[in-house]
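User: I'm new to structure prediction. If I give you an amino acid sequence, what do you actually give back? Let's try with this one:
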Amino acid sequence: MKKRYPHKYMQNFVTEELNIKCDNNFLRCYLFGKRKTGKGTILFCPGTSSVHKEHLDLIGILASEFNLILVIFRGQGKNTGKYSTHNALVDMGVIINTIEKYDFVDPNRIGIYGMCNGGVIAVFHASYDTRIKTLCLWETNPEYDWKDHNFIKKRFNKYKNKGIAVDPFSYWIAYNPIDVIHRVSCKTLVCGGDTEERVRVKEMKKMYSKLPNGKFKIIENAPHYVGKKHPKFLEYSDMILNWFRREF
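Assistant: Good question. You get back a string of structure tokens that encode the predicted 3D arrangement of the chain. For your 248 residues, that looks like this:
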């Protein structure tokens, strides 16, 4: 199967494309760096809009020490099928069931980095899958009251004005992590910046308050996407790298 990257910059970093069969779709996930037997494995779950260039800066750092698999759900990037939170949860289960059989993956050391809606998927999956060793949730909303959320209203009004019929609940705002976060038993870092309208500090604090085994960290002046050109990148990347070092 020909390699098809969801982002053109990935071709300089990806070591291996993992094609995972799920329902009638092939999920193209990507291993960065060499296979590292005896090391932890991080499943990197970006948000609804899939991978951004800024993600690759963090991915490169994490992949230097751990097995790093970029998760691309159905309907994201070049994957076929329809993206929704429900489908992504199904995909996540199939992905973990598959990779834990790889000879370089230690099934007792699987962690998830989830950003934005990728964090929503991570929380829901970890709420019932005890194989997850640790979570790192960057800029993840605990609940989506989209009617009162200006950013989301603008997003879907834009689709509506273009004549595109979008139901936000069936698309991605169908699950509220705050409803299940108390069931997540693994150590979890809730973190983010303080500049974004889409994910507010008070909302991240609310989710952290429900965690039985959580830590909380806000990086001042950090945006939603933190690339290596941003002055807060070193603080951001060190925080996440050190988190997985401690928990693995």
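You can read the tokens as a compact description of the fold. Here is one thing that stands out. The mean pLDDT is 85.
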